[in-house]
Design a protein that fits this description.
290 residues, alpha/beta, D-Maltodextrin-Binding Protein, domain 2, 2 domains, 24% strand
């Protein structure tokens, strides 16, 4: 998919899929600086990613796709049309299911290294990474199995979900939300911690006596896959979180990314990318061009 689009734009691109271990640290990731690429009109960049439904994932044919990947496609096309970059080799250095290791791999990188996934932009992380501008807002949604009656309001959480337990990821933003729901509405709530959001989603979609709070992209992916999941709109929480792509702190690519992305999120092409991977409801909730 990535190579097809770039061939159409006339930009020569080499893509190499390197199957690195999922949870082991990578050897240092090194891409070319933007200064070199801009000067020579060619070079190499490296993508690494945390597998995230809708944002960066492999399709049925094993091709890497998602909102982040499509935005990278558009970015590379932008470099051709506005900066005359003629040849750009893109290496995809595996994926990780372990978020801290993924972050560390990017942190240790040099030059044109970009980390893709559901990476929240925070002041603390800005001390360790360069970020692109936000490409999507995050909305946390309250999810259950589809057989659970729709929750009318959060005040009735204990009465309506009294025989249920909550599943979440320890130390995550959504875990903090579950704990807040427990404190405010459901003191007797039993919370079960699982290793990943994928496992949480799998559990809730198979057990009508469970619920969770997850990022909207997980819900959108579940609906597209036909999982028996239900969103309870009274539980939507727009916390102001924004997702960005990350680079090593020493990277000089942040400026050109900013020039591209701040304009791109206002285009029809951006809207089509969100709708394609997350559905039309996602654009109304998550787009950063408002």
């Amino acid at each position: 998919m990535l190579s097809n689009l770039l061939r159409k734009t006339g930009l020569i691109v080499g893509i190499f899929l390197i199957c690195a271990p999922l949870v082991k640290a990578q050897s240092q990731l090194i891409g070319d600086t933007w200064a070199k690429v801009n000067r020579t009109k060619s070079g190499k960049i490296i993508l690494t990613y945390i597998d995230t439904p809708g944002l960066v994932y492999r399709d049925r044919n094993g091709k890497l796709t998602g909102v982040c990947v499509d935005i990278v496609q558009q970015f590379v096309s932008y470099l051709k049309s506005t900066r005359g970059v003629k040849r750009l080799n893109i290496l995809v250095k595996g994926r990780s299911d372990h978020f801290p290791i993924f972050l560390n791999n990017v942190k240790k990188g040099r030059g044109g290294v970009f980390g893709l996934g559901n990476i929240t932009i925070t002041e603390q992380r800005k001390q360790e990474f360069n970020f692109t501008p936000a490409f999507i807002y995050n909305v946390s949604v309250l999810l259950t199995h589809k057989r659970v009656p729709t929750l009318g309001n959060l005040r009735s959480l204990q009465r309506s979900f009294g025989n249920m337990k909550a599943y979440t990821i320890r130390s995550s933003t959504n875990a903090k939300r579950i704990l807040n729901l427990k404190r405010r509405y459901f003191p007797a709530l039993r919370i079960v911690y699982l290793p990943s959001s994928i496992e949480v989603l799998r559990k809730v979609s198979s057990d009508p006596r469970s619920f969770t709070s997850l990022d909207f992209n997980y819900y959108a992916s579940a609906i597209q896959r036909g999982l028996p999941i239900k969103r309870h709109p009274v539980g939507d929480q727009k916390g102001g979180e924004e997702f960005g792509m990350i680079m090593p702190k020493s990277s000089d690519w942040a400026g050109i990314w900013s020039q591209f992305l701040r304009r791109f999120v206002k285009t029809t092409a951006y809207k089509k990318i969100l709708v394609k991977h997350l559905g039309s409801g996602a654009y109304r909730l998550l787009n950063v061009s408002k």
